[in-house]
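Journal club prep — side note

Before the paper discussion, L.F. wants everyone to see what a predicted structure for a comparable chain looks like in C-alpha cell form. Sequence:
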Amino acid sequence: MARAGLTPDRITLAAADLADEIGFDKVTLSALARGFGVKDASLYSHIKNLADLRTRVAALAGREVHERLAAAVAGRAGKDALTAFANTYRDFAQEHPGRYAATQIQIQLDASAFDTPEIRRAIETPYAMLRAYGLSEPDLTDAVRLLRATFHGYFQLEATGGFNHPRDTTASWNRTIDALHSLLENWPHS
C-alpha cells in the first residue's frame, strides 16, 4: 500500500531539492526514501525507477527555468533580451545546480511525450529572442546552439572553480554577453 502523503509530484520536488543540495548525479531512491522516513519500496508505488525519477526532475527543472526565462525576456528585444535571458539562465544555474544539471540530461522517451504546448514554448523562447537579430533557419538553430554551449561551458567552469584568476567572473560574464550580442548583430548568414 502506498504511504500516505507520497505523490509523484511530492517525490519529484524532494528529488529536485536534494539534487540542489548534493548534486543531481548523487540522488538515489534510497536517499529520498530516507528523507521521507519510508522504505525504498514505498517510492515504487509512485516512481517506476531512478530513470523515471531523473526524467521527472528534468521536466520539473525545465518548466521552472522556462518560466523564469519567458518572464525575463517578455517585452524585450536585442541586447536587452539577450542580457535578461543570459542573466536569468545563469542565476538559475547558480541557485539550483542540481536542477540545472537535470536540464542537461538526454531523455530517452517517446518523442510524442514532448509534443506539448508547454515544451514547444520552452523551445521557442530562445528562438523568438534571436529572431530580433534578423536570424532565420538554419542560422537560428546554430545561434541557439552557440548560446547553449557558451552558457553551459561558462556555468561549468564557474561552478568548478575553473576560472582561477583574480578578475571577477561577473565582469567576464558581462563581457561575454557583449561579445555574443556583437556576434549576433553581425552573424555570418548562410
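L.F.'s comment for the group: The chain has one domain: 8-185. Keep this in mind when we get to the figures.
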